[in-house]
Amino acid sequence: MVTRTITGSVRAATIFIAATFFIYSSILAALVYQEFNSAEDRAESSVAAAAKAVQINTGWIVEVAQQALRRMDFALGADVRANQAATLAAIEDALEGLPDSAKAYIVTAEGQTLYTTDPDAPNIDIRDREYFTAPAGGQQFFTSSLLTSRIDGSPIFTFSQRLEREGVFVGVAIISFDAALLEDLLTSLGLGQSAALAILRTDGMLVARFPPVDGPVDLRQHTIFKDHLPNADAGTYIDTSPIDGEKRFVGYQTLPNRGLIAIASNGYEEAMARFWRRIQVFLAIVIPTLLALAACAIWIIRLLRREAQKNEALEEALERNAMLFREIHHRVKNNMQAMQALVAMHKLPKAVETNFKLRLSAMSTVHEHMYNHDKYATLDAPAFITSVTQNIFKAHGASDHLSLDIDQVSIDHEQATSLAMLINEVVTNSLKHAKSEEGTAEIRVSLKLLNNEQANLIIADNGPGFDPRTRPINMGTKIIQGMALQLHGTYSYAFDEGTIFSLEFPVA
Which DSSP symbol is given to 333? Predict the structure, then answer.
């Protein structure tokens, strides 16, 4: 039972420690996961705000370009004479407010350059360019995709407007911007070194980007057009760039009625670097703590298991000792019975033989009680005294009356034999001398607790009594005196309608 209890305690402790470790680890994992999500949310909020800034800036560029193109158209006059001084002055006024990198051109329907703000620009035929063919085909205002300049090879994008007089196409007004226009905006947003800004057309063509790319880029099959724009005009997502292969947080905003999309993105690893630095510091504290907890848990479990093994060994030793005690008491009881048989074999006077047998029986009863009840430290007084007195009555005949009133007292094993011998002598004396006129002895045996440490044994009979001063000191009297001494008790006799023997002695 003890081993099962200890083993159960070890198992319960192991389960508790494992559960505590699991819960602690789960909480830490949840905190890390929550912080990870928060870091991603902050990064997505950052690129969403940056995309809004790109949207506003792009809207301003488009608005400024449209107004400039309208003023250029108006400055040309009805007969489109760009070389007149007044016309040139009006065109220059129309270009006020444009960025310094912007360049303006007016090209006739035949491909002749009537006006340009680029003094180094050669007279190049641009009639194959989409920013010319789209207005020539009837589109009033057109935004080009990303182009490579035929003048200096730099990446550019343009806005162009159809010029017509009396319904007849006469040419195209063009304003071109360097794609590096987004560089200053990117710097001002303070994103990261791997950040990028871009402007897309709703047909998937790249209009401008910084860092720059060479040549046009078609993004119609990219996730922004397949998964995000069909569901929302603005938002954020995480994806790998098809241009440079960099994983980024991406924010996008559409420009209403402009056919354009503003993009701001920031490198994923760079944006999450702060989170990973915090996690490293966090783990530098937590991991040693977890390892210390694990080491303590293992140490505690080992101690419990070692204790369980010790208790198991003690239980086995206890069981062996109990078995040895049972065997000893059994052998002593058998020896007592053998001695009784030896006494019976000798021709002794009946009274002497009975006294011998009863004394041996009293001692034998102690060992029999210990053997039968597996109780070696203490004996239960009610069962023990009942056994002793019943054996005495059986030896003297069944016509005598016995009444017992025994409290639930524990008798120490060292006291048991002395108490049994004393009860045997006193009860035997009562049976011998307490005969009433009808020849029946009435004997009452009681054992009462006086307090937690003292008990009172009373053996009363209905006999005529005796004078202790004149009573001869025989073997029975000596045994009573010796046993009372061994019990560390004091006894006395009283006479009230019979003899009353009283013994007070300490109990366990």
Answer: H
